[in-house]
Amino acid sequence: MSKEITMSSEPLEGYQGEGFLATSLDKAVGLARSKSMWPLPFATSCCGIEFMATMGSNYDLARFGSERISFSPRQADLLIVAGTIAKKMGPVLKKVYLQMAEPRWVLSVGACASSGGIFDTYSVLQGIDRVIPVDVYVPGCPPRPEQILDGVMQIQELVKNEPIRRRNSAEYKALMASYGIK
Amino acid sequence: MNPKVDNEYIVEELKLAFNDDILLMDESYGMLGLEIKPSKINDLLKWFKEHPVIKANFLTDICGAHFPDLKDRELAVIYHVQSMENNIRVRIKCFIPISSPKIASATNLYVGANWMERETFDFYGVEFEGHPNLQRILNVDEMDYFPLRKQYPLEDGTREDKDDSYFGR
Amino acid sequence: MQENYIKQTEEVPEYTYLNLGPTHPATHGIFENVLTMDGEIVKGSVQTVGYIHRAFEKIAERRPYYQITTLTDRLNYCSSPINNMGWHMTVEKLIGVEIPKRAQYMRVILMELSRITDHLICNSVMGVDTGALTGFTYMFQWREKVYDIYEQICGARLTTNIGRIGGMERDFTDKAYRLINEFIRDFPKAFEEFNTMLERNRIFFDRTINTGAISAERALNYGFTGPSLRACGVDYDVRVMNPYSSYEDFEFDIPVGEKGDSYDRFMVRQHEIRESIKIIKQALNNMPDGKFHADVPEFYLPPKEDVYKNMEALIWHFKIVMGESDVPKGEVYHAVEGGNGELGFYLISDGGRAPYKLHFRRPSFIYYQAFPEQITGGMLSDAIVTMSSMNVIAGELDA
Description:
Number of helices of chain A: 6
Largest interface: B-C, 34 and 41 residues
CATH class of chain C: Mainly Alpha
CATH architecture of chain C: Orthogonal Bundle
Radius of gyration of chain A: 17 Å
Number of domains of chain A: 1
Radius of gyration of chain C: 23 Å
CATH class of chain A: Alpha Beta
Order of helices and strands of chain A: EEHEHEHEHEHH
Shape of chain C: globular
CATH topology of chain C: Cytochrome-c3 Hydrogenase, chain B
Distance between the termini of chain C: 57 Å
Largest sheet of chain C: 3 strands, antiparallel
CATH topology of chain A: Rossmann fold
Structural class of chain C: mainly alpha
Strand order of the largest sheet of chain A: 3-4-5-6
Oligomer: heterotrimer
Number of strands of chain A: 6
Number of domains of chain C: 1
Largest sheet of chain A: 4 strands, parallel
Helix content of chain C: 40-55%
């Protein structure tokens, strides 16, 4: 777990003067995106309850710019998969992912979503990364809300530092193609 | 004044009504267990439900079990009925051969039996005759085996990170 | 012209199909309902379940007894301790162990705390579905307090894995007692505030009264148990009918409803929370002295310090962890009153290290069948409230 997570008060890199800041477009866009993630909770089981606790008043996901929980995949940037994904659910998950607009990120919460967890059985998908690409994995069965928050912050770090052309790059296209996504 | 309903009373009543059809009666951990011919299961459930004194009119559960070593009795269907009024539970078992796993459905007696029987079908392949919608319920429709039968493995089988030697297998 | 048009539509009713789920935010879990709609009126529903089927029963056939506790956690994850205790009691019944009174009282406290959290999650989410998000954010703070108590007792928050076969893993610490006392002191006041918000609220009345009703006769035929059955007026509660874990020592009432509609279910749960507080108070006041676990070395893990120093303890530890303890052959059915109703464990043991067959009687799996019947003829928005008032938990349903 990286300890050097930058806080939001840290200024952007760039040329700064009286009343202006010149920086690259990447950084400005990344900053804006990372502070207004709209998560789509794809909560299926136990981790879903912990995710509810994360949204609740004690842990308050809203502090990280994720006040608006989007229940429509069309208007979400972050897919939070919390809970066991059975093989019956796999195609549904992929469909939800495909409905999301680019750029999109995926946070896999809990052991079940990340690897199947204790359920190495005939009916459970052994990790959602067999169906969709995942950006950050949160371990735990279920993870504590602090861990989920840490996962969201890691996603924010990724979002902040993402080059603006990444989604058009050949590597990204190859990644998508490996999941059969055009 | 009704007689006290306990296991002895039920046994006496059963002997009068189903003398030859009951194959086995025992008591384990306070619960009366019966084994009955599969063809008579609906009669027995109905008898329990409509008996004026026992009033075992609540179907607690239906589940299956697989005993590969019992010849022609491989699959068991296990019913639990209870009487809330008399606070007594009874376990009823039927053994059926795996080659033709057929038994009458209890759905016309209890609506709630619907999903329990679908689950038993899904897990063990027991065909409940007269069931309105006997389909898989928990597993995907494409599944071509009955996963809880003993010969099928538990594991997914596609994991590459598991080394069997670490698990003593 | 106008009349003609109306007449024609009456002759040929046009139904639309609405796909509710499996990821619909209002369904609280993974259920799919394909509703047949006549305008806003529900005409029928086709349910699909099994979207998080995890094969608990198959796993249970491969795991030693003490490892199955971990599985039961994930059945009804809103009230894990009840499931854990239910499993421990099933095995204790099989091996014939009587656990000390103190451990039984500790278990009662934990089970009632988890009943509170289970009912809180259901009722506050019901508020969300009728348009009152406040209750949810308010009551989740109190769930966190219960989680603090769990953490103090077992170290985990949600999937607790609490207790052992043969008793509890450790005694309550002083801090745990303090937290429980603080909870039962402060929670009732906050709870009554939450209650006032919905109990006599006109909007809530209109949304819940007479929606999703079911008669007692139908409910029994469907196999309802728990609060959903009691809302129909049947006073069946496993805690009273077949008392386990010393429930016969406590004074408490069984609240019952009348019509079996969403409001009755809500009120039954609200009253049960009050009764649970009552039970916890009695258990704390009358907590007996003594040991917190029975003397069953072949099932109860020895203290860790002894394992390092004492040969016998090491052997027992090894035998338990490797699942080599002998269990009698037999069949046992044990039921506890879970958050949603009668949670039954049917265990067939052939004397091996794992159960030969373990079947969970999951209350919500059985009563969720009645959902189409309950919502047919009502509005779509009422169907959502009915579902949340039934407290159907996907993990328990699909097992």
